[in-house]
Amino acid sequence: VQLQASGGGLVQAGGSLRLSCAASGRTISGYAVGWFRQAPGKERDFVAAISGTNASTWYADSVKNRFTISRDDAKNTFYLQMNNLKPEDTADYYCAGRNRWFIATRRDLYDYWGQGTQVTVSS
Hints:
This protein is mainly β and about 120 residues long. Helices cover about 0% and strands about 50% of the residues. The chain is built from no helices and eleven strands. It has strands spanning about 1-5, 10, 15-25, 35-40, 45-50, 55-60, 65-70, 75-80, 90-95, 110-115, 115-120. The strands form two sheets. Strands 2, 4, 5, 6, 9, 10 and 11 form a seven-stranded mixed beta sheet that branches. It has a four-stranded antiparallel beta sheet with strand order 1-3-8-7, with no helix packed on it. A hairpin with a 4-residue loop joins strand 7 (about 65-70) and strand 8. About 35% of the residues are buried.
């Protein structure tokens, strides 16, 4: 499976961005997918995930109530809607997928990854 992330950019604090991750090579339907982010000099951290059944989502505390993960299996694409962005959200954002239906927050439990898309939030 290949993942292609897009939608990053420069935004002012309080603004919004929508990241997309398009999959190819296999359907993502029925499989959990998620987003991670990596700020300069820091580790890649979990942001959000959605189960393969589309019934469950999970968020890092730092983004809860501001970010929303969703998926459109018909388009083989999933999304991260980011609202009320803060300077501390600045990072490279990576999409990832699992070969299981249930959510995971550890990056070593994800089987395939997209390239990063850069998000910069100015104060």
